[in-house]
Each structure stands twice: as structure tokens, then as C-alpha cells.
Amino acid sequence: MILQGLGMPDLNHRTKSRYTQRLHKIRKQMTMLSDDFASSIPTEGNYSDAYFAYNFPMNLMKTIVVVQQIRSWYAALFSNKRRVSVLDIGCGEGAGMLGFYHGLRDQGDKRALDLVGIDGSRKMLRRAKALAAWTRKSDRRLKTRFLSQNIDSAYRCEPKGRFDVILLVNSLAEIIPEEVIPTQFIKAVARCLTDDGLVIIIEPALKRLAHRVMRLRSSLVKQRTLRVLLPCLHDNDCALLQVEKRNEWCHQSISWSPPDFLKIINQGLNREIDILKFGYLVLAKSGVTLIRPQGHLAISQLLTEKGKKRCFLCTPAGRVELVRLNRARTSCNESFDKIKKGSVIEVHDVTMKKLSYWQVKDNTIISILK
């Protein structure tokens, strides 16, 4: 369906020569779109084909990953609902709402879904409607509708009603371009949730945008009006906001296999398209009874150095450096070698050299929970 929308329905490695001019135009648009984005200029509507070719599949997959994370940790969520309602604010071409749909369906969840998308761009809404209509052909349990409406920081949930999930997928930076995301805006959105509903925020993994989300998370935790379910596993101060140099930011780096058409479009651009990078928050009302996972989140890859390996963890006490000397490797702690960014681990019996420095011993037990 994406290729049909781009006017290259049979694009592959054998047929790409037919579309030389079309591919050149999209690649040029992608470069201009990236330049404008780096300057905080929202011009997706001007380069809609480039956005559809590159950003749509990436954002779709990011949403699928987040939904899978939610279902992995909170399997009982919405278990008593025969139909789930979703509102996608600033839906664009529908990557968020359709990503949520595929995230459920890919895990065998066949319950009925009502998807509502709101956006101020009629051009993008036309594509979203076409994609939704194409998806509905194979799934009668899916209902969709779209509203054309400009959205700003004064937005109050429309249409009236309650939703099980409200999505803000790559839309907050356009709705609120300032350095601070007002908690009033998020709380106003959350008033449209059902009692056990979720707000899912996904943003690009740029330092400035990620810091905005990190500060938003800290404000919401302090105000106790909403509960952070993911990616944080505690309600204390953000570990990375405490780092003095402030040169780190919380984001995900997930490997995936991009479709062949995206690899073809990327030829000559050489972007890192096989890694999904994004920041996200999953929020619930403060009274929700879901049990949060135990353990610590790995916020770095495993770093190999001479004579040792190390990684960084997000803990209630802040950012912690977890170190294992090569000579301390045993069958008890061999799982240390499998730690990846995003892993959730349990650690028993370490030596705390400092509050922020834990050293793995011969008898330290390390378990990777996820």
C-alpha cells in the first residue's frame, strides 16, 4: 500500500531502474525534510512523499515495538474489554494508530478496535484514510474515522468521549514547540481516558526532544496525577537528568529489518535505517492497579574495555555503572555478557564501591528478565 501511494507499486531491486526520477525526487525531499527538522521547521506537508516513504514505516514500527513492550509487561491490560478505543492526536498518515493495530494483531489479539485520528493536514488525512480503508478490507473488526482539526497546546480532547488509548506519536514537537511540555496539556488529554486507559508518547531520539520528555516525566511523577508505566521502572528522579554534564538522554535503540523498498530509497543517502531510535512514555491514571515490573533497566549497550566489561543501569538511586572484571566471570554472572540496551535485569550480591558504581563479584547472580 505504501508503494502504491508513492506511485511505484512494483518497486524492487529488479525494477528500480524504471523509477530513477521518482526515487531521485523522494531522496531529495528526504534531505530537505531532514534539514528542516534539524532546524525545528515542521514541513512534512511540503515533502509528504518523503515523509510517507521514510518516516511512516519507521514510526509504524516504533509504535508496534512499544505496544509489544506494553503487552509483554502488562499482559492483563484491557483483558476485560471486547473492544478497544484509540485516539491518535496529530495522526498524520496514521502510523501511530495503525502501528497500535498491528502491534495487537501481530500478537494474536483479535478483539475489535475503534481507531480515531485527528490532524490538521487534509493531505495527510487522505493518505491515512486510504491506508485505513485498505486495512479494513481484511479485518471487519476494525473501525476507523478521522477528523480534520488543528491542534495546539490549548487542545481539549475532541471528539468527546473516553478512550482506552491516546497516542501522541511524533506529534508533540509540532503541537508544543517550546522547551517545556506543559503538564496541563498531558493531564487534559488524560481526562479523556477510561479508568484503566493509557497515554502513549513517542518522540524522535534527538537530545532536545528527549530531554523535554524526560523533564515531563519528572514533573508528572512529582505531581502524582499520572503514573509512568514504561520505560521507567521506578518513580524517583530521572537517572539521566541527574547526570551533571547532561550530555545523555533516555532513548531506545532497537534493531529491525527494514523493508526492501526502504533500502532502495536509502541508497546514496546511507542512513542508519536498521536501527529504530526513539524516546517514549507510557502513562496511566494514578489509581491504576497494574503491577510494575521489578528490576533495573539497562540504559546503555555492554561496553567492552581492557580487562573488564561495563554498562549503565537506571535505578531508583540514579544512574549506576555496573562493572565486571574479566577475572570475575563465573557461571553465576555469565548472563552479564548478554545485557543489551533496554534489557531489564536483576542483580544480587554486588559490591557497591560507590552509590553509582556496582562491581560484579564471583558469586554475583545476574538475571535478565526481559
From TrEMBL:
GO terms for cellular component: small ribosomal subunit. This is Methyltransferase domain-containing protein. InterPro entries: Mt_RNA_Methyltransferase, Ribosomal_Rsm22-like, SAM-dependent_MTases_sf. Keywords: Iron, Iron-sulfur, Metal-binding, Transit peptide. Gene3D superfamilies: Vaccinia Virus protein VP39. It comes from candidate division WOR_3 bacterium SM23_42. One of its GO terms (molecular function) is structural constituent of ribosome. It holds the Pfam family Rsm22. One of its GO terms (biological process) is translation. The keyword Iron-sulfur applies. SUPFAM superfamilies: S-adenosyl-L-methionine-dependent methyltransferases (SSF53335). It comes from the Bacteria.
